[in-house]
Write a structure and sequence with these properties.
Helicase, Ruva Protein, domain 3; mainly alpha; about 190 residues
Amino acid sequence: MQERQVTIGDETYRLPNPFLVLATQNPIEQEGTYPLPEAQVDRFMFKCLVETPSKADERRIMQRFAESAAVPEAKAVCSVADIEALRSSLAEVYCDDKVGDYILDIVFKTRERNPHIQNGASPRATLALNLAARGNALMRGRPYATPQDVKEVVHDVLRHRILLTYEAEAENITSDQVIDKILSEVPVP
């Protein structure tokens, strides 16, 4: 993914710019599928949780599908040039050293001895958290990232990068709970 190419057999193919990789993970229907190795999971920038819809939302979904047999049509919301312009803008979002140190402190805290963490986040997590915090600032119309930007994206960036211990899993402790504990222990600049 990060190399912007795929290899099938002996052939390597460059991917167009921009490209995006999305994957779904359904813990119920795993028949015939295999978990990705940690090194591959780490290459995904985010792991976003999609909750089961509320009864009212599910009613709307049911009605929408019952009322129309037509296949929904996808419509472009931006152009490739728009995406490239946003990427350029993202590179200009300032991240003060204090915010960078906050990111490093959070990631390094995942690597400290902890009864709930078997393996902490990799250096790729530091890069993703910095980029996501700056992206969060950009979406809010600011030319600089804040510790709050980091807090708003940290769960999505780290939840799949922290490998929990068997003890944590036995106690039904989630990676989000571990991240919350880390955030409570790392001083905010």
